[in-house]
Amino acid sequence: MAHRKVYLAVGRTGTRIYRFDPIDGDTRVVEDVRPYEAGYTAMGAQYRGDDKEPLLLAVSRDKLITIDVAAGTLKEQVIDGLPDGPWFDGDMDPDGKTLFAVSNPGTPSYAIDVAAGKAVPRNAPGGGRWDDFAYHPKNGRLYSVEGDNGDLLLVDPGRQPMKTVLKQGVFPPAQASAAAGSRKAYSATFFDQDGNFYAVDSAGNVNHLDVTTATIPDHSQRIGRGRVPVGNLEIMNGAGRITPLPVPPSYDEITVTKKFNRTWENSEPRGRVYSFDLTLTAIGKDSGTAEDVRKFRISFDLPTVKGAKAEASGVEVIAQDGKAYLDSVGDQFLAAGTSRPITVLITVPGDPARLPQEYPLDGLRATRLPSH
Where in the numbering of this chain does the DUF6923 domain appear (predicted)? Predict the structure, then answer.
């Protein structure tokens, strides 16, 4: 099971959940889930079906924290046999029944039966500054990254200690956030269903590694020119798995504005069509720097109902799990500082009388794509 977004636990205390899209860098706090003041980590995702958000499960001292991002609830439960922590790595096992959590190098790890509320000790992890791991969707093995030197690690629960170095220096050394006490660690890791591995450090730098075959590249690829936008907060952990897309990730955000044109009723499917002019400007959104753009991506939220679609000329459109991605076709040169409009039609099925007169176009963003 997988979705278009994964989940980040952000903040050493007052921890919040953020949804994160590794393809375009879209990052949004889940406002309905309250902050947890004591903080939590070692988080995993328990999927409940294709059209449902997963349950997130994490640990804080001797408690299991259950976060329902759909319902906006957060509950805590003392776990029989679970020590007082501290906790670092965590993930749900492939069958979604056990949260596997790791503490200090020489102390036992613990397998938590989330239904029974009981924890069983396992082997010790071994030394290093590795703060999250994730199960590979094809081979079922646990992978992690050493923050100090970027080694790719294999974590075998049957070994004592569990950690072995699979390949040295694959990732750049991790960076800490500006938060007090932040660790230089890769604190959030996850896969897509094909076996592409993503690792996010405490400061929000995102790296990608192709682990879809037995041959592991010598070096990961850092995505984008910026970091996951969570301010000076520390990224503590991550959970989830994404559905793969045949497009490269890009976080180099450029300026885009929208102008609503008009709407009309549609018969097949029954609903409404909304027309927008989206104007791209070859200026970095955050930096304000004017720079040429040759290829771009526009993305925004799209309803998950059957028949919803986006259309525009000169772009390739992919719609998946509530998002639309519009990638430019070929070289569409836009000189530094200049602008161009793109007319986009969005079809939303439903009762035309109940649909809004203007589609909100939430999550609208544009990124510069590599031109080589």
Answer: 61-215
Q: pLDDT band at 172, cuts 50/70/90?
A: very high
Q: What is the mean pLDDT of residues 293-312?
A: 95
DSSP state of 329: P
Q: Which domains does the chain have, with CATH numbers?
A: 6-242 (2.120.10.30), 253-368 (2.60.40.290)
Percent of the chain scoring above 70 in pLDDT: 99
Nearest CA to 126 out of 90, 95, 165, 94 is that of 165
| Residue 321 confidence class, pLDDT cut points 50, 70, 90 | confident
R_g of the chain computed on alpha carbons: 22
CA 196 to chain centre: 13
Residue 371 predicted with pLDDT over 90: no
Note the pLDDT of residue 1. Answer: 63
Give the whole-angstrom CA distance, residue 121 versus residue 102: 10
What is the distance between the alpha carbons of residues 12 and 59, in angstroms, rounded to a whole number? Answer: 13
Task: Please state, in angstroms and as integers, the Cα–Cα distance from residue 343 to each residue in 58, 97, 256, 262, 276, following that order.
Answer: 44, 47, 13, 11, 6
Q: Are 261 and 275 spatial neighbours (Cβ–Cβ below 8 Å)?
A: yes
DSSP string, 281-299: EEEETTT--B--BSSEEEE
Residue 244 and residue 196 in contact, taking contact as beta carbons nearer than 8 Å: yes
d(Cα 71, Cα 67) in Å, to the nearest integer? 9
2: left (phi over 0), alpha (psi -120 to 50) or beta: beta
Over residues 346-352, the mean pLDDT reads 97
* CA atoms of 346 and 352, how far apart (whole Å): 14
How would you classify residue 141: left for phi > 0, otherwise alpha for psi between -120 and 50, otherwise beta? beta
